[in-house]
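Work package 3, deliverable 3.1, input record:
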Amino acid sequence: MSDLMARRAALLGPNVPTFYDDPVQIVRGEGVWLYDAEGRRYLDCYNNVAHLGHCHPRVVAAIAQQSARLNTHSRYLHEGILDYGERLVAKFGHGLSQMLMTCTGSEANDVALRMAQAVTGKTGLIATDNTYHGNTTAVAQLSTRRPPIGGYPPHVRRVPAPDSLAPLGGSTEAQAAAFAANVARAIEELEAAGHGFAGLMLCPIFANEGMPGLDPGFLDATVAVVHRAGGLVLCDEVQPGFGRLGSHWWGHERLDFAPDVVTLGKPMGNGHPVAAVIARPDIMAAFRNAFGYFNTFAGNPVSCAAASAVLDVIEEEGLVENARDVGAYALDLLSALRHPLIADIRGLGFFFAIEFAREGVPDGAFCGRVVEAAKARGILLGRVGRAQHILKMRPPMPFSRANAERLAETLDQILREMPA
Amino acid sequence: MSDLMARRAALLGPNVPTFYDDPVQIVRGEGVWLYDAEGRRYLDCYNNVAHLGHCHPRVVAAIAQQSARLNTHSRYLHEGILDYGERLVAKFGHGLSQMLMTCTGSEANDVALRMAQAVTGKTGLIATDNTYHGNTTAVAQLSTRRPPIGGYPPHVRRVPAPDSLAPLGGSTEAQAAAFAANVARAIEELEAAGHGFAGLMLCPIFANEGMPGLDPGFLDATVAVVHRAGGLVLCDEVQPGFGRLGSHWWGHERLDFAPDVVTLGKPMGNGHPVAAVIARPDIMAAFRNAFGYFNTFAGNPVSCAAASAVLDVIEEEGLVENARDVGAYALDLLSALRHPLIADIRGLGFFFAIEFAREGVPDGAFCGRVVEAAKARGILLGRVGRAQHILKMRPPMPFSRANAERLAETLDQILREMPA
């Protein structure tokens, strides 16, 4: 392990993110399980990329077969992108009937920002603080915690995200109006500064902010504010999309609002690099006519075959229903956990959050110890939130009741042994 | 075909690029050949992504095997990225010993720009006009021919690219000094405007500008200007890299200069979405410490397996030597073409350019007719240059003498039948 870390440092340089104080060397994956070089197995409760489970044979076969037949760019005609895209956009309402494919969620969000700019002719963008929408220059400017070289760009404003521990406006009831008011103020500032307002980007479950508990309708006032100002609501579905919430295919359906643009990524190809932007035709036309966009790898037949196999398996194996049913079962089990530092336990389908706080103050250090302890017991978890104080669990979609029991029992053991 | 075009328009929106007035529907690829839905075959002389030839069985097998074993992110340790990266950086000199993986050349260039900004603490960037370095917001700002919403960003300056037909400074001899002088002027402007100077990005063969004929040493004065000003030379090797030039593995080796950062893309995975940035350790550290960069799909074991197989095949099949030998043979054949509008015929390994001009004025329309006529005769070509007046030919690396003869004979027939 130390040999691999030394090789990484020599080849990749400093500050390359790894998980865990003593990172694991994963060599094999199958379903919900990952295996390290010593043959130890880990229950993967973190990785939402391997949506169907690691190395799902249907996706592997689709990639292998199409790679052997044709893999080229979309400037030639091919049925693959059409068959896939038509099937994908059929899963959206609100006039979201057109698709632009990219290779990564970052690229998709980078396009979505320009769609808002193309439609409005303005540059101003708003995002929530402590969020993350990707790694390109333009997208990183939405969310970086370290100022970019040259300072934060003046056309980007950040608003506080909704928060379960410290709700905006001082209470859960006041939070929706407070969030909308902050967005309205940011729009006014952008307009006063001459940038104008193009769009608001958000994750419809605020996943990176720790998935605060929000009721349907939470964003209604905000969406109205954005639309009154002529801007677009850009909905980053990279984490909640493809049925993870169990109740719906897409996160915006749960909050019951109509986004103008939706972006998709991580789970879309079960690990194959494929992502997309879904938009209304008026928005797509504005973007396509304003920018001459082409992406060499995007929408190639192999990516479309992988992404089609993902839809096949979700539907044939009933994985959305599984996320709903087993997700509810798992949330029941997790909700029985007891510890003085647990401030909240919440879940939507196969997305769970356990928030740790000490007298109302987020306890990121404790959360970090739980993650390390879970790894030692063979369970992979992550953490999020403004203080990294929220356990983040996003298991693969075939996660079973037995898997859920193992997760809950392990967390119970860890919390019992871990003093506040 | 018209059915597919209608479906594309409905699904993808307007202004989505296709090749040809009547685009082909490609359904299968093998080696240097692409096959359409009617079983017609085309000699692919355009696509540098399928570097080893379409659907090379070694890459297909590598992708299939690794996809079945593990495909996850680089926050866990894995030997794949280390084995590949160590082998790749060993192919570079000039202290270029570290690697950052991305999924696309656009992402790689987007990172390279920020590397220059991290090292210098300045934001100013310079690129050649009429070039293309990718599709993210930041990278598209280098090269767009249509102004971005909100106007061209003031921290980006464009300088005229070297040109075979109308050399900078009025003559081939004066061109190198003139190019350097233009870069020096742009640096002064950036400094005067308060942005400071971070870096110059260029393709070392100026591929999108039509690969003007340039001698080794052409960039020496420019590199000196950039370094004297404290900036970095960012070398976009997405097109010339991986041995295409026959004489060298990398384009900068042919012009014999030392870039500070190199970006790689298209051919790297023979179609699998994988790309990279190669940099000196001091530069990588400055970037890694200034930005918290992570890319979900980049450097996953499948991408590394595909990219490793590409290196295997290039080496085992002697493809660089093939590009050198067959490239020289093909250039001889092409050089025998005669037509009143041919202004120049040039080539480097498996990268050929035929420039069309009418009394010194670029003739893009004629070049377009040649591309269409070649398609009708079963050969796929592209075009580039400030007036799209330069035939661009980048065949797969196993291109044979017989393939070269077919290309030259077909072009000869076309040109004989096409009045000036």
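Chain B has 13 helices and 16 strands.
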